[in-house]
Amino acid sequence: MAKNVLFIMSDQHQQRAAGCYGHEFVKTPNIDALAACGTRFSTAYSSSPVCVPARAVIATGKYVFETGYWDNCLAYEGRIRSWHHMLTENGMDVTSIGKLHFTREEDPFGFKRQINPMHIHDGVGDLRGSVKRPMAPPYRKWRGIERLGPGESTYTRYDSDITDAACDFLRKKAANPDDKPWALFASLVCPHPPYSAPQEYFDMYPEAEMPKPKLIDPDALLHPWIAKLGRCRNFNDFVDEEIRRCIMSNYFGCVSYLDFNIGRILQCLDECGLRDNTIIVYTSDHGENLGTRQIWGKMNMYEEASAIPMIVAGPDVPEAKVSNTAVTLADIAPTVLEAVGLPYMIEEEKLRGRSLVELAKEFDDMERPAFSEYYGPGADRAAFMIRKENFKFIYYVGYKSELFDLDKDPEELTNLFNDTGYKSPAGHLEEILRGIVDPDDADERAYIAQCALIKKHGGRDRIIDRGAFQGSPVPGEKPIFVS
Questions:
Q1: What is the pLDDT of residues 308-348, one digit of tens each?
Q2: Residue 228: how many CB atoms within 10 A of its CB?
Q3: Helices 241-271, 154-175: inter-axial angle, 10-degree rounding
Q4: Which residues contact 175 (CB under 8 A, 6 or more apart)?
Q5: What average pLDDT does the segment 176-182 reach?
Q6: Which pLDDT does position 458 carry in this prediction?
Q7: Residue 70 CB contacts under 8 Å (≥ 6 apart), including other chains
Q8: What is the DSSP letter of 482?
Q9: Is 382 in contact with 444 (CB distance < 8 Å)?
Q10: Mean pLDDT over residues 412-423, rounded?
Q11: Coil, strand or helix at 445
């Protein structure tokens, strides 16, 4: 029987920063309760650890190298059919509320309606991140410090509005039931920076108790690719011990504020009597480094940035289950299509993933790999990741590769790629990667597209002189550029 879909998404929620994923002190009672009545995926990854490409994968069910939505300025514009199009074409109500990070509201994304949408600024976004080879100069200023909390921000207020609108949508559906399934995409922005949590949530995480991130010291040995990323973004240059602790308290406070809003939506779903016929999915577009390896934000393949929460609940979904099958954001589109009764379209459209509901019902599939790719801000060359069983393989175009045994080394501190005892798993995972994509070809195609974009908008010097705005403005707000 076809079901409705409630797809709740956050922005920049590190997988580890949730009680159900084992965090020692972060409070997420509503996310934990959702996991308790559904299936939580332990091995879940962003398909591209930065906002715009990740969201294009969610929409299309296809990988970045297939679609060409390479970075935060080359966004989904409706050219490729999305699950939104497919549901709408079948007479279903598909509504989005909140952050989409596509091009412009008037573009044909396939939704019946967009409520209070956030898209990239002016349909283009922050072009500085698309400047490559050589990279744009390091920032001389980080607005994240200026906007550091505690306190309300435009993002926390936006999330409150998104939650109100989601509850209003659910009440209307309960009062006037549809003949066909509906899908609601409620897309929240917390805990994405600015790192500014409402006071009561900030107070839940005393600054003095914040842990020290690993490899944050300036003399720490880092992979050359990640060191170059750090020099380009250089946010850690603006962070002393006091500011670091304050950032972390605010970030965790924003996670708990996110959880509060998720709880409001789920409570409304229950009060409206809609849960029994609704598949609920919760995930995030990518994680957050939180200072690890001297990086703030996302933009790499280590666990802090690439691993994400992924929970599915609802009719026919096993309860209180933890699935160790690897999943990614490419599995969202098939999940929606299967839930609303259009499973045949998964194969018809040659989508990359599978339904999370179906995967939740099965035994763990340790042979299923997770794939991720990155061409975005701070990366002069592309990075790729394959996770399978206990191993993670990271391939950098033009740099040495990395291999980690996450069972023995969950913090990814020991690179085994050149260890003769691990040549077999390293070779096997690289073979899987090359069976999916030609890394060098994808890297070059991304670079060509980025060069064309920079040229179209006035060239490298003009874009660098304009500066960056370090975070998309909410609807009605203007970006503030800094250099």
A1: 999 999 999 999 999 999 999 999 999 999 999 999 999 99
A2: 17
A3: 10
A4: none
A5: 95
A6: 97
A7: 53, 64, 375, 376, 446, 449, 450
A8: B
A9: no
A10: 97
A11: helix
Calpha distance 208→241 (Å, rounded): 10
Q: What is the mean pLDDT of residues 22-48?
A: 99
* Residue 352: how many other CB atoms lie within 10 Å: 21
Number of Cβ within 10 Å of residue 287's Cβ equals 26
| Backbone torsions φ then ψ of 308, nearest 5 degrees | -135, 155
Q: Report whether 279 contacts 339 (CB < 8 A).
A: yes
Looking at the domain covering 4-368, what would its CATH class be? alpha beta
Please state the separation of Cα 334 from the chain's center in Å.
Answer: 17
Q: How far is CA 252 from CA 27, 212, 444, in A?
A: 8, 14, 38
What does the pLDDT read at residue 358? 99
| CA gap 96, 74 in Å, rounded | 21
Q: How many residues does the chain have?
A: 483
Report CA-CA distances (Å) from 5 to 32, 34, 170, 280, 314. Answer: 19, 15, 11, 6, 9
The pLDDT value given to residue 139: 83
pTM surpassing 0.70? yes
Closest CA to 150 of 205, 206, 202, 208: 202
What is the domain partition of the chain in residue ranges?
4-368
Question: Measuring CA to CA, which residue among 6, 187, 177, 181 is closest to residue 88?
Answer: 181
C-alpha span between 471 and 150 (Å, rounded): 18
